[in-house]
Amino acid sequence: MAELLVVGTLALDNVKTPFGAVHDALGGSATYFAYAASFFTRVRLVAVVGRDFPQAHLDLLAGRGVDLGGVQLAEGPTFRWTGEYGYDLNEARTLDTQLGVLADFHPVFPDHFRRSPFVFLANVDPEIQLDLLRRIERPRLVALDTMNYWITGKREALRRVLAEADALLVNDAEARMLTEEPSLVKAVRTILGYGPRVVVVKRGEYGVLMAADGRFFFTPAFPLESVFDPTGAGDTFAGGFMGVLAHADRVDDETLRRAVVYGSVMASFAVEDFSLNRLTRLTEAEIEERFGAFREMMRLGH
Question: Most buried residue among 78, 122, 194, 281 by CB atoms closer than 10 A?
Fold first, then answer.
């Protein structure tokens, strides 16, 4: 088992879906990622929060064994996101984003964080991603996420990060936007030309497409009767995906494929309730049971 470092956001979210709403709920890319990954490996977290961030949220992560040595407490408000979903839960409508202390975030972390074999650069400014990456000592695997805001606003910085990364995890709209290719397969091949050798495209209820060393792998999403809140599903997928790789301490084709399935399993639990509520009730037995059901669902007969 190898250590896994993540830099991203700890946030307070206001979310409304057709099935309810939450106010100042625990959210953020690094939050979902770290909590999901903690079921598989040891996680180190780098982020910033304001003094309005509840201590109970930090205690929740620490209770999962997450090393919070890289979490800074700054003067000012915590990053906040407000969004809503219609019955098409694949698309969120952002109503308000308040950067707060994230606007002046410069990662600071203990020396032992520098020796993290697996690194995930969650959805933050690519300048922050690059700054952190260049202070890590010879990581074995570097993966990152991004979003349309950075693709349009900081494309050159993002391309510099991509040139140094081993893997990119994005949704299908972001893959097309980044490459200006309408074909998803062409978009993936173009991204592989930017530097990463692994590209994972998260497609919500339509599953996951991965290209690794030129070979494609696809899984459907796990069929669910009830989806309450898809916020953080992609970050939860990434946490499961990277957690499995760090646990195995290898990045071969078989492990990558298992990581995609486990990532999909973790995301399927996250959407069953608001915030991290379902993940906080999750057991390892439930994860393995759903992983088994996932494998059976995709099994071909003889």
Answer: 122
CA 111 from chain center: how many Å? 24
What CATH number does domain 4-298 carry, 3.30.300.130, 3.30.465.10, 3.40.1190.20, 3.40.50.620?
Answer: 3.40.1190.20
Q: Which residues share a beta bridge with 17?
A: 20
DSSP, collapsed to helix, strand or coil, labels residue 277 as helix
Residue 100 burial by Cβ neighbours in a 10 Å radius (0-12, 13-18, 19+)? buried
DSSP run (H or E) holding 94: strand 92-98
**Tokens 């407490």 label which residue?**
73
For every one of its 302 residues, what pLDDT tens digit does the chain have, with 9 covering 90 and above?
A: 999 999 999 999 999 999 999 999 999 999 999 999 999 999 999 999 999 999 999 999 999 999 999 999 999 999 999 999 988 777 788 899 999 999 999 999 999 999 999 999 998 999 999 999 999 999 999 999 998 889 999 999 999 999 999 999 999 999 999 999 999 999 999 999 999 999 999 998 889 999 998 799 999 998 888 888 999 999 999 999 999 999 999 999 999 999 999 999 999 999 999 999 999 999 999 999 999 999 998 887 66
pTM for this one? 0.95
DSSP-based three-state secondary structure for 1: coil
- Alpha helices (runs of H) in the chain, residue ranges in sequence order: 29-37, 55-63, 126-133, 148-153, 155-164, 172-179, 184-192, 233-248, 253-270, 277-280, 284-298
Answer whether 276's CB lies under 8 Å from 31's CB.
yes
Tokens of 34: 């770290």
Q: Are 124 and 3 in contact (CB under 8 A)?
A: no
Euclidean distance between CA atoms 190 and 194, whole angstroms: 7
Bridge partners, 61 (sequence order): none
